[in-house]
Amino acid sequence: MPLDENNRTVYEDPRIVRAYQQASSISPAELAIFEPLTERLRAAALLDIGIGAGRTTAYLGAKVSRYVGVDYSRALVEAARTRHPGADIQWCDARQMHAFADGSFDVANFSFNGIDYVDHPDRLQILGEVRRVLRPGGVWTFSSHNRDYARRGLLPWQGRFRPGRVMARKSLEAIRAHKNWRHLRGEQVETTDFALVNDEAHGYSMLTYYVTPHEQVRQLAASGFGDVLVYDQWGSPLEGSSPASMWLHYVSRRL
Question: Most CB atoms within 10 A, among 61, 71, 81, 91?
Answer without folding.
Answer: 71
